[in-house]
Every structure is written in structure tokens, then in C-alpha cells.
Description:
The chain is α/β, with parallel strands linked by helices. The protein is built from 16 helices and eight strands. This is Zeta toxin domain-containing protein.
Amino acid sequence: MEPCTATALGAVHLAVPSSLRTRTIGRDGHSSESSRSRWRTPDMWRGFCISIGAQLHRRSWRSARKSRTSVSCNEEGRNDLPHYFPKTIDSSKADDSLDEDAASGDDAICELIGYDMGESLSTEISEPFTEEELHAAYVASGYYSAKRARKKAAMWLIGPSACGKSTLAPKAAQWTGMDVEGYVTIDGEVFRDAHHGYQNAITEGQQHGCVWWNAYLGIRENINEEKQLLLERARNDGKHLMIPSTCLRRSQCVDVAEDLVQAGYEIHIVGVFGNKATIVERGQKRAMNAGKRYDPREFELALQMFAPMLRLCTGTWRMVCTTDDASSQKDIHGEAPLEEADIERICKDVFSMYEEADVAC
């Protein structure tokens, strides 16, 4: 193993744990820390090298994100949707902008009401995760309990926010037997729940009876970074993966699925959908309870990714309606490979419920 030296690490500035710094006491009685580290035990040395490796990994990941164009679904395919995609769907307004359309009428957005988050709370939200917070997130994801899989599988639960993807995950794992060896859930929720700054923002928002729109935007980059690192670690350990995602960006789903296929994973796809009015109501209620801002304009964008993800299916696929719509309760499922005609038929079955005014509500 290459020694943990400044040369090996590219001579970049990295944070040195306080426990490894040399502290001296001056004549005036004040203490000071030396920039030279004292390696007290082999375990400290090894732990510090691992910590440095994680820091470098995060930095290279940030750099890669900046250099790679990450295009949202409405940007990359707005004018090239399949002919069977509902014409009533308008995805042109879906972005991070804050206006009355984003507020969706009923849920209270703190910034629109007139509250100011303030610099202190904004800083708390943007703070990187501590080791304790990351450990809690990894426990909640199932990372430590999941075993190395004999036949690696990644199950994608795709669909609009608040449609019930995470709730469906345990049942979906049983469909493929992933529950036997356990699986790692790659979901931002476990990181949001563990981040103290974000939880403080939720508490303050609830005291005002509203949700901070910018709270989720402030922590999103850190969450995406940690989700990527968790995914890479679980993949390298050969564990099953459960990935609930709205797939609003190609890099969140298509690119990752392609990489997992190359890594020897079997890809299962579960499309989750339902009545828009019902799902929007769920999202608004969850926003008040969990503090994650809900944007109903993203509903249609998630549906656009059903076809691209079905093309990547190498295992089983299933379409699940999670609302009480009798006409959409058909159990639609099957196995790969899928021809383009098959994908069109599947999507037509799903999109048929959105051909009326429901999708524009």
C-alpha cells in the first residue's frame, strides 16, 4: 500500500483531526496547535489515511460533477417525447424557481409568506455531514446489515415524488428475493433525517407553520454527494441495491444504471404512479412533516423517464399504481429483454390515466 504522504496525496490541503495535532503551551499560558501531526498509534495513522481518502474522493466527485453536464429530463427531451406521451403534460415550468406555481396552492412556503431563513440557519444546512451523522445514515440505509450478494441486483423504484416508492421498497425486495441477503437503500431521506442542521430547519419551519423552500436546495448537493459515495461503497462490496428515485436528471438514473450493468448487476425496474391529485396531496402533507419542499411541477418529469429506464432493464419489471384508481390496478409485470414495442405498450397502459384533466390539475 502506498504510504499516506503529501506527495501521494497530491499535496492538497486537507483537514487534520485535532486529536492528531501537536498542542504546545506558550509562556503566556495559551495553547497553540502545530501544523505538524504526531501519529500516536498505528490505528490513528490508518484512520487518518482513510479519512484523507474519503476527502479526496469527495473532492474528485465534486470536480467531476462540475465538468460533466448534468441535464434535467425536461431539458434533454422536451421536444423529443414519444408519440404516446400524454399531450396534456406540460413540463416546461419545472425547475428550482420559487413562485406561486411551486407553492401549489395549499402548502405554505416560508419564503413566500415573508420569513427569512437567516445566515445562521443557512450555514447550518450547508454544513458537511459529520462522521456521526454519516454513521446514522448508513445504519438507516441497511448498509451494515446487508450481506454480499451471490447474484448482485439493483432495483430501481422510479416515479413522481410522494407516489410511495420508499413505502413499496420492502415488498418490492420480496419480488426478487433481495430481502433474503438484505439490501442497501440509496435514498436521500436517510441523510436528511441524520443531518442536524436540516432537522433544525424543519423544526423552525414547523414553528412558523411552513416549509423552507431553500432548505432542501441548501443540502441537496451534499446529499447527492453522500448518496453517490454510499452507492459506490455498496457496489464495491457486492451488495444488493434499492434505489428509489424521481429520475429528474439523467445522471441520477440512466448513467448510474449503465454503470451498474457494467459492474455485473442485474437491473430490475418498478414504475410507481397514480392519480396526480392524490399524490400531490400526499406530497404537501409530507412537506409539512418532513420539511422537504414539494414541487408538483416535477410530477410529469418523473413519468418521462419510464421508457428510458425500461430500456435498461435486464431482470424483471413491474408497474404499480399506489392510488385507489380501479382502472389502473392491473398487475402489469414481466421480464427482460424488452423490445421498443413492448415499452410503448407498457407506457401506454400507465399513461392512459393521464389523458384526461387529471394530469393538469
